[in-house]
Each structure stands twice: as structure tokens, then as C-alpha cells.
Design goal:
The complex is a heterodimer.
Chain A (H helix, E strand, L loop, with lengths): L8 H26 L9 H29 L5 H30 L5
Helix pairs in contact in A: 1-2, 1-3, 2-3
Chain B lengths: L2 H18 L13 H30 L9 H35 L8 H23 L24 H29 L12 H33 L12 H35 L6 H14 L15 H13 L1 H17 L6 H24 L1 H7 L3 H31 L5 H27 L16 H31 L37 H4 L3 H6 L13 E6 L6 E7 L5 H17 L3 H20 L28 H30 L13 H26 L6 H25 L8 H33 L8 H30 L4
Antiparallel strand pairs in B: 1-2
Helix pairs in contact in B: 2-3, 2-4, 2-15, 3-4, 3-5, 3-7, 4-5, 4-18, 5-6, 5-18, 5-20, 6-7, 6-8, 6-20, 7-10, 7-13, 8-10, 11-13, 11-14, 13-14, 14-15, 18-19, 20-23, 20-24, 21-22, 21-24, 22-23, 23-24
The chains are: A mainly alpha, B mainly alpha.
Chain lengths: 112, 838
């Protein structure tokens, strides 16, 4: 597993957010294309979109916690502490972004 | 400065001048150092800004009164298209790139960027591309479909003249410059900071430019691909965007805005970087919330890629998808707000000096916040529908772009002017320039919100008198001329200050960053020696640092060997780990760009033979350029002097070239992903998408070519792995073998293409397939050609087991070529077969 003070952590969480974004939009598009029945009201498609988002939220916030703890470790050097702190923030924001963008999926019909 | 310091400094200066000076006379065209290239970008961008502004004035003159006919409809279409194109592609991005190219090495305590020839090449691509685009206006054949060139309006049916071709080819040419700047800036910031400058202590401007550079790497390729596809459609009839052949015009919109929306942030980030740099200097305290600002830059860099569909809310997208993109559009306001609060907190807790640059910053804060608020309004779907394609959108865009970019750029111009010219601007003219511009701008564009809400569509060349828009338009036009007067005063101030400006001290604003340690008069090597830096504010911590630096008391103080040297650092800690020797003056960037300009013009004239010859010449120039690398006497004159302790980068296994290759391949991958997106988009969405009844490609030969490519890449990988372990047996012979296998792959691919039954002018399916095959072929042919070149360099002694750097730089190219081949087989051939569509 990538060290919590590795500089790639700065972009890892938001890259995962981007992957989730592509998956979410692709699933929505394909579901509406090939499974038109049920797309005109809140349906299983909404459920699917929420379910595929949950692991991302958990993973991103887990990473945020891991980076935050690493940033507080006394043996971590100052440059690496900076990386871990900012990464913790980036992972948190990425997780929050998934939550915020999933909310419309709870109430709106997917294919109208 | 003491007498001793001064005499030591002048001797050192002479020694460094010999190594770093530009060639005299016309030889200045071969200059590659960042100061010369950066200033050229800035001045050229300024000229394009004035031209774009004149076009805007013509439009405002036409719209001042109803039912005027000063400018006829066709010319008006050309004017708004060219105004947008010039301002976005020839002014905003290049001038900010120029600012970054000029400032970054100075801020990070380096003497140059890590790829100086790439920077010079980028400038010439920009210059030639810009001239080609501009020339079309004077020839009366300028593009007229709007600066985002929507299909089918820009397709050959509705835009039969050369205007769209000029845009597509010219803008693509200019985009080479943006990509090259993006790559070299990112590599330079990460790998060439002065000793001790960590990621957390580098100037905040560097974070912004890092964000901008990476966004360019990922953001520009979709438009480059879209432009290539549309040009192929227009010139040879491949129906990517035509419904009849299985294409879809909305694909253009997706690809364009995949670039277009991040582009707004590509422009905003460096401008905000200027604000974050200047504002603390005039607040006389460090920026509040450095970490928060860094976080917001990173977040903005990602989330801004997820908003592109909010430009397409009216094209018929499901509600949920609209809400999804609406949410993303609102989210991006959060990191922007973080920065605004950080700036306000800095002002609140500081002692603000209201100098001229600060005035422009305050103007920026006012206008940009207003533009941001209308941006949040436009993120709301119902409101967006109401004002779509009205003057409200034009007003919003100008509040964001002028407020978010022009004002900070002018603040930066006034701030760094003494650094460049050694003289101060006039306060009186400066204040007049600001207030005229500020008042004129708000008068022009605030009223456009109103005309937009009243229903006035954008891009109409006139309107009837009884619609209730007349008074607003007249005032708007008057405001436009007031703003133009403000810009004119600024230009006059700039012109006069060279002669009449008060002489500036070395650090007239009491700034904290290293660019103010550059000795006057300006040199091309920046610093006589490179310091160790321990904080974000080196000049506040040690005001004598400029003197000791220029007296040669720090690192790399001498250059008797004749090499242009800078520090190479660990990306996180900033610890010096090698010495990077960068290129000296070179004609190759100019020659290669000139050959590409010939290609561009020949394609416009449909002279494909000349274009082919031009392309071959350009490739030849670039290969010759690449020859002058590594141990070549022009790249690294040795003169018997090797540094002690820290190696030259060409003796290591991890120089900046490897980072440059990685970044270039990321851009390449973004282009490939855009092609993949296009393929799946057309497959699932295009109404008339159809696949041929039989597979148009001979699979056995195609797969055999892939096997050959895989073997070549595998052998190359193994060769590099052995080099890493210090083994280089039969290096030249093995490189020739790999080249031979690469050639077998190329021959098999060529044969497969020749034997195919593709109908690329009839079916979008086949057209995309052909583009994919050509894309693969270009990569594998390039990998093969550069490997042959490596074999020759082994023979010359430029590459050995003790000098393994170059083969390592090329390894990712081989891996990438093989990876995209097999990914393409999966996505373009096997998946459709599996779904039974071919």
C-alpha cells in the first residue's frame, strides 16, 4: 500500500474520485440506454448508483484518516508531514464530493 | 554591497555571461533561455490582446445602436469568432505561460527551465500559429462559427470556406506550445528547485503553476483530438460528427468542453497565483492558510474536469445527469472560496499598502467574486436554460475571465515591471489606467447581464429598436470605449516608463521571493550562485541574500567548463541530488517550428505533397535536435571538468528527461482516452452508428504485428533493466535487433492497413478505427526510430553502460506503445466482436 507520506497521495484521492465519476456517469448512461424500463421514476438504477458509490466514500475517508495520523507521527520529517496533511485534506474533499454528487441520485428519476 | 563583493561578482558575471549569453544579432532567434522566451511570450501575447480588443471595439460599435449596418453579418460572425479565439488561445493562455516561464526559474532559485529548447519551440509554434490565424482575418476568410466551433455549423456543409480549417489547424499548432510549456514547467518545479526548497516551502506561485501545467497536460489533448477529427471530416470526409455516417455532432461539444471548462481554470490558476504572491507582499505578512490554498489548488485542478456538461444543459441530457454536473459545478466554488477567504484574511491581518499593483488586485477581488456568483447561478439547471446563449452568459464569462485573469495579469505586470526593466511605472498614469479600465469594464459587462435577462441573444449582429435593449447597449458600448481608453493609458505608461520611469531599487516592494534577488542589469543566468533555502520567505529572512548570491557565495558559482548548470533536486525535500546541464542556444526549435508552419499552411491550401515533405523535414529536424543531448559536446561540454560529489544528471538514472517523457505520455494518454471516449460515445449514442457486416481488418496480421511490438518492448525493457544493474553487453547490437523487430511490427501494421476493407469516408465506425490504427503506428514507428538513433549513439560513445540515462528515458515510450496496442485490440476489436456488433 502506498505510504501515507508519499507525494502521490496528493493526487490519489481525487484520481479515485475521477474514476468514480467516470464509472457513475457510464453506469447511468448504459443503464438508461439498455434498461429503459424503470428509468422514468426512482428505481433500481438509483440504488445501483448509490451502491457503487459507497465503497469509494469509505475508501477515501479511510485514506484521509490514515494520512492525518501519519502527519501527526513524530518521526515524520517536515516535508513529508506537509504532504500527509494536504493529502488528508484532498482525500476528505474527494469523499465529500462523492457524497454531495450522489445526493441528486437519491431523489431524481435517472433517465428522464 | 562591499567592494570585495562587487569585484568578485563582476568577474563571476563575465564568466557566466560567456556560457549563458544569447547569440548576437539575428542569433537571438536561437535563444532558448527562459528569460528571453518568457518575455517573448508576454510581449507577443500583449500584441494579440490589443488586436483582440480592437475587434471587440468594432463589435461594440456595431451594437451601440439598433439596426446599424457598420459591420455586416458575415464580418460580425468573423469578428466574434476571432475575438474569442484570439483572447482565449493567443492571449490568455500564452501570456500566462510566458509569465510562468519567465518567473518560475527565478522563484525556485534556478538559472533556467529544464527543457529550454522545448520552451523556445513552443514559442515559435505559438507565434507561427497565431500569425496564420490572424492572417485569415486580413484575407477575409477568418473562421466564423464562434470560438467553440460547434458542429455542424463549423462543418463543410455550413462553413465551406477555409475559415474553420484555419481555426482547427492554427489552434492545434498553438496548442503544441501550451503542452510544451505545461510539461517543462511541471518537470522544472518538481526537479530543479534550489537546495532545501521543499514542496511546503516553495513559493505559492509554483503550486499554482504546477496545477496549471498538469491541467494543460490532461486538458488540451481532448481539443487536439477533436480538432484533428473535425479537420479530417472537413478535408477527406470522415464522418465523425455527421449523423448520416454514424457520427454525432454532440461528440464535438463533449470533446471541446472537456478541454474548454478546465481551460477556464488553466487560465485562472496562474492569475490567482499572481494574487497569492502579490497580496501578502502589500499586506506585509505571509499568506494566511498556505496549506489550505495548496489544497484548494489541487481540488480545483481535479473538480474542474467534472463540469464540462454544464455548457450543454440544453442539448437533451437526463435530469439526473444534469443534477450531477450541476452539483459538480457548485462544488468547484468551494476551493475558489477558500482562496478568497485566505486573501481576505491576509488583508485583514496585515498592514495594507495601497500601491498600484494592489489596486488591480482589489479590482480583481470585486469583479471575480461577482463573476463567481453568476457562475453559481449558471450552475443551476433551470436558470441556465433561461439565459442560455444570451448576453448574460457573455457577461458572466467576461467577469470571470477579465476579472479572474486580466486584472491579476495587469497587477503582475505593474508588480514585476521594476524587476524586468529596473524602472518604476508612473503612479498618475497607473491610477488613471486602472480606474478607466475598472469603470469601463463594469459599465460594459454589468449591463450585459441585464440585456441577457431581457432576452438578447449573443452573436447577433444587430437588433430591432423596439425590443428595449437599445439604451443598455449604448451604455455598454460607451463603457467599452472607456475601458479601451484605460488599456491605452496602461500601454502608454508601459511605453513611457522605459525612458522616464524612476529607477527602481533591487527590491522596491520589499518582496519575499527569490526573483527579486536577480542582479541588475538583467542577465540570462539569473543568479551568480544558487542558495540553500529553508523558508517560504528567503528575502524577508535574510535581506543580504541577493548580495551573497551575486558575489558567488553559494552553489554552482563557476562555469569554467562551459556548461549551463542548475541544481536537480529531490521532488519533496528539495535536497540537491544531481546537477542538471541544460541546452545552450539552438536553431533547431525555430527550424522545427518553421517546418511545422509549412505543414500547417500546406494543409490549409490542400497541398498534401508539400505537407508530407514538410512533415518529414520537421521530423528530421527534431531527430537532429535530439542528437544534441547527453554527452554531445553542444549539450554538455566537458573540458575535463566533472562536478565533485554530485553527478551530472546525464550520468544518473533519473534525470528530468524521464519526468518529461512521463508527462508527455500522460498528455498522450489523455488524447488516447479521448479517442476511446469518442468510440464508446458514438457506439452507444449516435443514432445512425453502424458497424460493417464483416471485420474490415485482417486479424492474423494485426495480432502478429502486436506480438512483434510486444517482443520489441519486452526486449527493450530487459535491456534497460540490465543497464540499471550496470550491465551493458552488446548494447548496440541489441538495440539494432530491437529496432529490426520494431520494423517488422511497422511493416505488418502497414500491410494490415493496406489490405483492410475500411470505408472511413462512409462509416464513422471505420473512420475511428483508422485513426486508432494510425495512432498506434505513429507511436511504434517513433519508438523504433528513436531506438535506431540510440544504437547510433552507442556507436558514437554517447550512450554506454556507464551512461545509461537515455535508454531509460525511452523505455516508457516502448511500454506505452505496446500497452495502447493491446488496449486498442480489446476496446476497438474484441469488445465489439463480443457484443456481436461487427
Amino acid at each position: 500500500m502506498l505510504s501515507p507520506v508519499h507525494p502521490l497521495q496528493l493526487v490519489l484521492g481525487l484520481t479515485v474520485w475521477a474514476v468514480w465519476f467516470v464509472i457513475w456517469y457510464t453506469v447511468l448512461s448504459l443503464a438508461c440506454e439498455f434498461a429503459s424500463a424503470g428509468g422514468t421514476s426512482v428505481s433500481w438504477i438509483n440504488g445501483l448508483l448509490v451502491v457503487i458509490s459507497l465503497p469509494f466514500i469509505v475508501l477515501l475517508w479511510y485514506w484521509a484518516r490514515r494520512c492525518w495520523r501519519a502527519a501527526g507521527a513524530p518521526e515524520v520529517s517536515s516535508p513529508h508531514r506537509f504532504v500527509a496533511q494536504v493529502s488528508a485534506g484532498a482525500h476528505s474533499v474527494a469523499g465529500f464530493s462523492v457524497v454531495f454528487m450522489v445526493i441528486p441520485g437519491l431523489v431524481l428519476p435517472p433517465c428522464v | 554591497m562591499s567592494t570585495n563583493h562587487r569585484s568578485e561578482g563582476s568577474a563571476l558575471r563575465e564568466e557566466l555571461e560567456k556560457v549563458w549569453a544569447n547569440l548576437p544579432g539575428w542569433g537571438a532567434l536561437a535563444a532558448v533561455n527562459h528569460t528571453s522566451v518568457g518575455l517573448r511570450f508576454i510581449i507577443t501575447g500583449g500584441v494579440f490582446f490589443l488586436i483582440g480588443g480592437i475587434l471587440a471595439m468594432l463589435m461594440r460599435t456595431q451594437l451601440a445602436l439598433p439596426e446599424q449596418n457598420i459591420v455586416h453579418a458575415e464580418l460580425y460572425n468573423q469578428l466574434f469568432t476571432m475575438h474569442g479565439t484570439i483572447m482565449m488561445f493567443l492571449f490568455a493562455i500564452p501570456i500566462l505561460e510566458g509569465l510562468a516561464v519567465y518567473l518560475i526559474p527565478k522563484m525556485i532559485g534556478a538559472r533556467d527551465l529544464v527543457f529550454p529548447r522545448i520552451g523556445a519551440f513552443g514559442y515559435y509554434c505559438y507565434l507561427f500559429g497565431g500569425i496564420i490565424i490572424l492572417f485569415s482575418l486580413f484575407m477575409g476568410v477568418a473562421p466564423n462559427s464562434g470560438w467553440f466551433m460547434y458542429t455542424p455549423l463549423s462543418s463543410s456543409t455550413y462553413a465551406p470556406g477555409p475559415g474553420s480549417d484555419v481555426w482547427l489547424l492554427g489552434v492545434t499548432f498553438v496548442e503544441i506550445s501550451a503542452l510544451s510549456a505545461g510539461i517543462e514547467l511541471v518537470a522544472s518545479i518538481l526537479r530543479s528547485r534550489t537546495n532545501g526548497m521543499t514542496l511546503g516551502t516553495m513559493p505559492i506561485f509554483c503550486w499554482y503553476i504546477l496545477g496549471m501545467g498538469l491541467m494543460i497536460v490532461f486538458g488540451f489533448p481532448p481539443l487536439i483530438l477533436a480538432s484533428i477529427l473535425l479537420e479530417l471530416e472537413r478535408s477527406v470526409g470522415m464522418p465523425f460528427f455527421s449523423v448520416e455516417g454514424g457520427g454525432d455532432p454532440l461528440l464535438w461539444q463533449h470533446l471541446f468542453w472537456l478541454f474548454g471548462h478546465p481551460d477556464v481554470y488553466i487560465i485562472f490558476l496562474p492569475a490567482a497565483g499572481v494574487v497569492s504572491t502579490i497580496l501578502p507582499v502589500f499586506a506585509q505578512r505571509p499568506l494566511v492558510g498556505y496549506r489550505w490554498v495548496v489544497l484548494s489548488i489541487i481540488v480545483m485542478g481535479f473538480i474542474s474536469f467534472g463540469l464540462w456538461v454544464h455548457h450543454m444543459f440544453t442539448v437533451g441530457i437526463p435530469q439526473l445527469a444534469q443534477a450531477f454536473f450541476s452539483a459538480a459545478s457548485m462544488l468547484v466554488a468551494v476551493p475558489t472560496a477558500i482562496q478568497i477567504f485566505a486573501w481576505l484574511a491576509t488583508l485583514w491581518t496585515g498592514k495594507v499598502i495601497l500601491a498600484l499593483p494592489m489596486l488591480w488586485i482589489l479590482g480583481f477581488l470585486f469583479i471575480f467574486v461577482a463573476g463567481g456568483l453568476t457562475g453559481v447561478m449558471l450552475a443551476l439547471v433551470p436558470f441556465n436554460w433561461q439565459v442560455h446563449d444570451t448576453h448574460f452568459v457573455v457577461a458572466h464569462m467576461h467577469y470571470v475571465m477579465v476579472g479572474g485573469m486580466l486584472f491579476p495579469v495587469l497587477a503582475g505586470l505593474y508588480y514585476w515591471l521594476p524587476q524586468v526593466t529596473g524602472r518604476m511605472p508612473s503612479k498618475l498614469l497607473g491610477y488613471w489606467g486602472f480606474w478607466l479600465t475598472f469603470i469601463g469594464f463594469n459599465m460594459t459587462f454589468f449591463l450585459m447581464h441585464v440585456t441577457g435577462l431581457l432576452g438578447m441573444p449573443r452573436r447577433v449582429y444587430t437588433y430591432e429598436a423596439d425590443l428595449g435593449w437599445s439604451g443598455f447597449n449604448l451604455l455598454s458600448s460607451v463603457g467599452g470605449f472607456v475601458m479601451a481608453a484605460g488599456v491605452a493609458v496602461v500601454v502608454i505608461d508601459l511605453a513611457l516608463h522605459y525612458r522616464y520611469g524612476r529607477k527602481a531599487g533591487r527590491n522596491p516592494w520589499n518582496a519575499d521571493t527569490l526573483e527579486w534577488a536577480v542582479e541588475k542589469p538583467q542577465s540570462t543566468f539569473n543568479f551568480a550562485s544558487l542558495p540553500t533555502v529553508r523558508s517560504r520567505h528567503p528575502l524577508w529572512d535574510d535581506p543580504t541574500l541577493p548580495e551573497t548570491m551575486n558575489a558567488g557565495r553559494h552553489g554552482l558559482a563557476h562555469a569554467p567548463h562551459g556548461r549551463r548548470e542548475i541544481f536537480g533536486c529531490d521532488p519533496i525535500s528539495g535536497r540537491t541530488q544531481e546537477i542538471i546541464h541544460v541546452s545552450t542556444n539552438s536553431w533547431w526549435p525555430l527550424l522545427a517550428a518553421a517546418a511545422l508552419a509549412v505543414v500547417c499552411v500546406s494543409l490549409l491550401l490542400r497541398s498534401y505533397l508539400v505537407a508530407s515533405v514538410g512533415a518529414l523535414v520537421a521530423v528530421a529536424f527534431m531527430l537532429r535536435w535530439s542528437w544534441e543531448n547527453g554527452l554531445h559536446s553542444k549539450a554538455a561540454p566537458m573540458n575535463g571538468v566533472e562536478p565533485e560529489g554530485v553527478p551530472l544528471h546525464s550520468r544518473t538514472q533519473d534525470g528530468p528527461g524521464l519526468w518529461g517523457m512521463g508527462l508527455a505520455l500522460l498528455a498522450d494518454a489523455a488524447l488516447y482516452m479521448s479517442l476511446l471516449f469518442g468510440w464508446f460515445y458514438l457506439w452507444t449514442v449516435a443514432a445512425d452508428w453502424q458497424a460493417p457486416e464483416q471485420m474490415p481488418l485482417a486479424l492474423p496480421s494485426l495480432l502478429a504485428s502486436g506480438v512483434a511490438l510486444g517482443i520489441a518492448a519486452g526486449f527493450y525493457h530487459k535491456l534497460v533493466a540490465q543497464l540499471r544493474r550496470g550491465r551493458g553487453d552488446s548494447l548496440e547490437r541489441r538495440l539494432w535487433w530491437i529496432s529490426a523487430i520494431g520494423l517488422i511490427h511497422v511493416a505488418l501494421m502497414g500491410w494490415t492497413l493496406r489490405a483492410s476493407t475500411l470505408a472511413p469516408t462512409e462509416l464513422a465506425h471505420d473512420a475511428v478505427l483508422l485513426v486508432m490504427l494510425i495512432y498506434i503506428l505513429v507511436h511504434s514507428a517513433l519508438s523504433t526510430a528513436v531506438t535506431m538513433l540510440q544504437a547510433l549513439r552507442v556507436r558514437k560513445g554517447y550512450v554506454t553502460k556507464d551512461l545509461p540515462y537515455e535508454p531509460m528515458v525511452l523505455r516508457p515510450l516502448w511500454v506505452y506503445s505496446a500497452a495502447i496496442f493491446w488496449l486498442s485490440i480489446l476496446a476497438f476489436i474484441l469488445m465489439p466482436l463480443g457484443w456481436g456488433t461487427v
